[in-house]
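User: Can you predict the 3D structure for this chain?
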Amino acid sequence: MLALGFLVALLFGMSQTVYGVLFLPVCVLTALWVREGDLLIAPVVVPVSFALGLVPVADEGDGGTAGRLMGMVTGLATQAGWLYGGTLIACAIVLGRRVRLIRTANRRAAAARSRARA
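Assistant: Here is the predicted structure, written as structure tokens:
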């Protein structure tokens, strides 16, 4: 997300809306590519990566550290819709994958039990 933030800042002139729109496909890819053992971590990583990628896109204010920090806080507040939407998408995909994983494991266990009885 940090690289995406720098790319957005370079190509679109620090447009936080473009960054938010591009954040959504990243959330989908994150939820799809995460390992099965780490499924429940994806919804936690997504907001952290959003904040990290917002650093180059955030308004610099007067150019100092306080101005940069205030730009980050303002960016997180004004772009919360993208953040919540992306997190919700990641949660839905991860929960769907987790349910499918548990159902598959339960079917295998039931098949093994039925073979053991026979």
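Helices lie at 2-12, 16-33, 42-54, 65-78, 80-117. The chain has a mean pLDDT of 91.
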